[in-house]
Write a structure and sequence with these properties.
single chain, 407 residues, Spore Coat Polysaccharide Biosynthesis Protein SpsA, Chain A, 2 domains
């Protein structure tokens, strides 16, 4: 890789793709990137970096072999200036370590703009490259977050916790703060590399929220890019997402401590510019096992009550017990907001092992998702967004509770 970098010396754009056993989908991603570079940035020198975590299914070979026929795309300037670098990453297993490798190469090549995209995307198009990179190259933005349409039950950690909580904390309405596909400026790449997070849990599942929060909290210029549908390998909400939930929420809580002087002073929230033409698209359905989610919530209420007594107020626990017996099941927004804020407070105060605190959140999260499913089974996409907007406003309106009790 070092020899390859010496040969290249410098580049204008870098697109990074972290991967692990993505041979089935990564070929399409590489072809979309290549077509996007040829179509939208034909005069710029571009580099594609695949940072692989030791795939056993031939992912690196697929990247090397992926090609696209530019003639069929009616691209007038058929200059193909995309160079490929396929390299393993080192450090903790996880997306963050792959990002570190991508960012180090970007800094070495002194690129003007960097984009990262997931390897399991099936809906990526060449236009994504333009939308993620041009705001950085031509409009002076440092961080471009994705804005896409997803099935109402895809991204439940984002919808029920991460988006409403980070919006209330930092006052910016970034709809997909852990979306996975971003555009980044040269100076923000340098900031990321200077931070000592690469040997922590952030280097696993927490990297996306760390990148988004760092950009917002430190005053970098941020925007969003409308990318249409995100069709990837979805995870059913009642499947074993416990580890991801713990690491993402743990990262949010850690960032709350780091930036507490920032978020304490924030009231309400503001829109963030969205670039790109918005349109309606179809999305793939996500199967939801409602019975299993409710079963795990009620099991947690029986088996974790003693632990929750150290995290949640007696009033809140009593409300949960009463609600669990009601039909139809419903976990109100105000109750959910109080739960998340009290978990953040317990994590901050270290009332017990922080890992125990985070693990015990899973049944409550499943209860909230089950409630959301029951409320939105027959709702249109716009009605679902309205429902999520109401949840976000509940987080904002009750933020004073968190601020008052934080110390």
């Amino acid at each position: 890789m070092r020899q390859r970098l010496q040969e290249l010396q410098k580049a204008d754009i870098l697109v990074g793709i972290p991967s692990y056993n993505n041979a089935r989908t990564i070929g399409h991603v590489v072809r979309a990137v290549r077509a996007g570079m040829a179509k939208y940035f034909p005069t710029l020198r571009a580099v594609l970096v695949n940072a692989d975590g030791g795939s056993k299914d031939g992912t690196p070979q697929v990247v090397q072999q992926a090609t696209v026929d530019l003639d069929t795309l009616l691209i007038a300037q058929r200059r193909d200036n995309l160079f490929k670098i396929v390299t393993p990453y080192h450090g903790l297993a996880g997306k963050g370590s792959a990002f570190r490798t991508i960012f180090e190469i970007a800094q070495e090549l002194q690129v003007k703009a960097c984009a990262v995209v997931d390897a399991d995307l099936r809906s990526i198009t060449p236009e994504w490259m333009d939308l993620l990179l041009r705001p950085v190259l031509e409009a002076g933005y440092d961080f471009v977050a994705p804005y896409y349409l997803r099935h109402k039950y895809d991204g439940t950690i984002t919808n029920t916790i991460v988006y409403p909580l980070t919006r209330a904390l930092y006052g910016k309405r970034i709809r997909q703060p852990i979306g996975g596909d971003f555009g980044i400026s040269q100076r923000l790449v340098a900031t990321y590399l200077q931070r000592d997070v690469w040997q922590t849990d952030i280097a696993r599942f927490g990297i996306d929220i760390w990148m988004s929060t760092t950009a917002v909290a430190e005053g970098y210029k941020v925007c969003q890019a409308f990318l249409g549908a995100k069709i990837h390998d979805p995870k059913e909400p009642s499947a074993d997402l416990a580890q991801m939930l713990q690491q993402v929420v743990g990262s949010v809580f850690m960032l709350m401590e780091l930036y507490e002087e920032v978020w304490k002073a924030v009231e309400g929230s503001q829109d963030v510019p969205v670039f790109g033409f918005r349109y309606t698209v179809g999305v793939e359905p996500v199967y939801v096992n409602l019975g299993r989610m409710l079963e795990r919530f009620r099991l947690g209420l029986r088996e974790l009550a003693g632990l929750w007594e150290q995290i949640l107020s007696a009033e809140l626990l009593q409300a949960l017990r009463e609600m669990a017996a009601e039909e139809p099941f419903r976990l109100p927004d105000e109750l959910w907001v109080r739960i998340i804020y009290e978990f953040a407070l317990a994590w901050h105060a270290k009332v017990m092992s922080r890992q125990h605190i985070l693990r015990s959140l899973t049944p409550l999260y499943l209860g909230k998702v089950a409630s959301f499913v029951l409320q939105t089974q027959h709702s249109s996409p716009q009605e679902v967004e309205d429902r999520l907007e109401a949840l976000c406003l509940a987080f904002e309106q009750n933020k004073h509770y968190l601020v008052q009790r934080w110390q």
